[in-house]
Amino acid sequence: MARAGLTAERVTIAAAELADEVGLDQVTMSQVARRLGVKDASLYSHVRSLEELRGRIALLAADEKTIRIAEATAGRAGKDALIAFANAWREYAHRYPGRYTATQSQVRIDPELVARAPGPRRAVELTYGMLRGYGLAEPDLTDAVRLLRSTFHGFVALEAAGGFAHERSPQQSWPRALEALHALLERWPSSGEGDSA
């Protein structure tokens, strides 16, 4: 019988907090159970496996990060929206490193859980909506989304790993990188796809 008060959501939050403290790869079902003051077996009434738990952390984080980005970009367009979007992304990665890692991992997530989680879908909508402000359409939209994700994730991943050893701080480089992205998005090269011959 499941312990009273214990839910999949409560287990996920405890695991997410632990991931932020020790790293996603270090989270185990036993550690989560200890954190909640229950026996390991009690968790399996709410989550089937460690892989499912990591998937739930990823969906929780996607929801949280998307909410922060939506709040930051509300009423903004163009460069202002890009900077607000990027800063919200980076701040989330800094504040919640374990959860952020979960959003970038290749964990297999139950399609039913994904279908009920608004975060991933809303993240795509926000990103594409922000980029439409630059006058982009497909296939350029998809290419630009991939560029932004690669840039934002690459920057925060290198920061987290101590990969920027130069005397110029990442805090100085970050706004310059965003300025460069803005300039590129304003002058996005045509793919030529769909143009008449």
UniProtKB/TrEMBL annotation:
This is TetR/AcrR family transcriptional regulator. It comes from the Bacteria. The keyword DNA-binding applies. PROSITE patterns: HTH_TETR_2. Residues 28-47 bind DNA. InterPro entries: Homeodomain-like_sf, HTH_TetR, MT1864/Rv1816-like_C, Tet_transcr_reg_TetR-rel_C_sf. The keyword DNA-binding applies. Pfam families: TetR_C_33, TetR_N. SUPFAM superfamilies: Homeodomain-like, Tetracyclin repressor-like, C-terminal domain. Keywords: DNA-binding, Transcription, Transcription regulation. Transmembrane segments: none annotated. Residues 5-65 form the HTH tetR-type domain.
